[in-house]
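Reply to dn_fold:

You asked what the input looked like. This is it:
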Amino acid sequence: MLAAVVNEFGGPEQVELTEVAVPRPAEGQVLIRVRAAGINPVDGAIRAGVFGGAGQRLGLGWDVAGEIVEAGADVTGWSRGDRVVGLHYGPVKPLGTHAEYVVLDASAVAAAPATVDAVAAAALPLSGLTAARAVDLLGLAPGSSVLVTGAAGVVGGLAVQLAARAGLVVTALAGAQDEELVRSLGAAAFVPRGEAPAEPVDGVLDTAVLGDPALAFVRDGGVYVGLIPGAAPAPERGIRVAEQEVAADGEHLARLVSLVDAGALTLRVADTFPLADAPKAHAHLATPGTRGRIVLTA
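and this is what came back:
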């Protein structure tokens, strides 16, 4: 099968297409025929060597939408042909979802949304689970105020929708050109990038990874939630600082799928590329102002 991998760190030109054997599912795993796979910023970081792994082949891709081809021993509830989505967690792995087939733990898989195609579904797993975990970590009661930085991005946009659905009063911080977009996702108020909210908020969900400047928006005793482990600012003024770390969780993913099918969660795709054009897709990943997930199709 064809797979996109990195053998040397660097720019998009380091993404290689190579022929490898189709993997086989072990006990508790399923083999998925990949139909679509999102490209996330973490893939660019892996390619650049942020997570290490020098001297070995690194597979790319965390998101997958496709159908089950084979189930390993002790797997129940899944049959050949079932349409699924899943998260292939881990920055250092020999093969990822940017391939024609991928093996995942059955516990990482959920039935695919019935209301969107595989391309849109591939934009859900990593971004959706990240946003949902971050909103949960806020721990705020309905009616509380929360500011989402980077609200027009993929994770930020999903966080706006999930926070609003949880009854939080959402202020979106994004570029001035994105006000209409973020309000359509459920933001009650808008702050242009580079400005501060009129009043401190109960919590900040910092998808833009602003750090200290975002912490300054939180009231004394409030909460700050960051997306990248180890990158959050130091607590001050009694503010609780938390960092989400995503995990492969099929049950949680299934709940997000149900929101998609109910029309309560909008998935956004900016562009698609065939798997063979993975290096071009990686170059496009760095394009400023991209509003939606870039997706590879296999």
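The two ends are 10 Å apart (CA to CA).
Hope that clears it up.
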